[in-house]
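Reading group handout, session on sequence-to-structure problems. Before we discuss, look at one worked example. The prompt was deliberately terse, the way you'd type it at a terminal:

> structure Glycogen synthase

The input record follows.
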Amino acid sequence: MKRVLSVASEAVPLVKTGGLADVVGALPGALLPQGWHMRVMIPAYPGVLDRIGAGDPVWGADNFFGGTARVCLGQVGETSVLALDAPHLYDRPGGPYGDSRGEYWDNAERFAALSWAAAVIAREGVEGWKPEVVHAHDWQAGLLPAFLRYWNSGIPTVMTIHNIAFQGRFGPMKMGPMRLPPEWFQREGYEFWGDISTLKAGLMAADAITTVSPRYAEELMRGEFGLGLEGVMQLRSGVVEGILNGVDTAVWDPAGDRGAYPYSVSRLAGKARNRKALLAEFGLDPDLTGPLAVVVSRLTAQKGIDLVHQAIPDFVAGGGALAVLGTGDAWAEDQMRELAWRYPGRVGVRIGYDEALSHQMFAGGDAVLVPSRFEPCGLTQMYGLRYGCVPVVSAVGGLADTVIGATPASEAAGAATGIVFHPVDALGLRQALHKLLALHADRAGWQAMVRRGMKADWSWNRSAARYAALYDRLIGA
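And the output record:
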């Protein structure tokens, strides 16, 4: 069995703030049939060591970024976990990156430490286990490929961009505390417009770069999506590959979901029961005949929440209803509350996040709205497809890669699985919702589209095979 070390700031089921954790948590199991044993390394946030049943330390250091550290090996499910236990860096009551007062002041050191410890373990191995490939995720692990390159380790590295908007940017005074060699504070290293960028460091140093969808890989070469790093992406385009994320089909399964009435592509009766229950859960009109749309999302501008606020009045007037679950920016939360106040019985809102309720919403919703301004991959639309909750998405990133929009051509070919709109603005979303109303009114056509979406395979099988092929190429090279 070949060996790969995956390093990230979060992983399901131990800690999650977004889709990054889903990917990091799902990959190890998906790669096993491909002949790769993946260990996952994350910080030991509160409770992590107990969750993994950590044994004796396999690595330790006394003078480690301001305190004592150790790495403990444990297990969660079938996944082997290396937890970096450094209480002075990670034992805090807030989230992984900050608390109610904002981001932690020492995030530069906290995640440089994660990359440093992972690089040492990759180079030296622990208890007879040494990786043949190292896989770093997002800016929090961006210094990992860089450290291994600076040390001339010879270990091949993969850098995955889950969202280029987060770049790990810090002032140059952090070079010393982050243990960065000053000679690499340059264009070919980690320097970025006079600052440090840990994401850029990883992109410049890695042997291979992946993004979480093919479309996003193309978009990042352009200024409107690259957010200042488009030049780096163009420079390294020869090693960039887009590999779609997958869905954990054991967790997301309408036929076996404990939080909903079961149903399947061949037996859809349970879908109607879930719809009725969801209307009651959100206090919406029980006699609704138009489409029930759902939003399960971070409430931010990136996710197009302001466009939802502008487009929903026409949708409600046309007979539709909306249920929203999410948390995010205060202005976006206020906009959703305002819609619920303005349209009682037609718009229901829950501020916060509830994993069980999110499953109920996909099971009971007719359509899921994902009007993102940019979306590296997105899992929400894949959950929607699997649950027969038709996606209404903007034509960006992984949304465009996974949803076949309803057009005369796709409908003639019997291929449409959702609604795709462009440009990404309020008018575009209003037009998409108008199409949703019309398609939902055609019951036979609607059921056919629901079933096509449910039949699509967005499991990890194909994506894991592509990661395994990439690792094989790297060790072969």
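Points for discussion. First: The chain has 19 helices and 20 strands. Second: The first strand starts at residue 2 and ends at 7.
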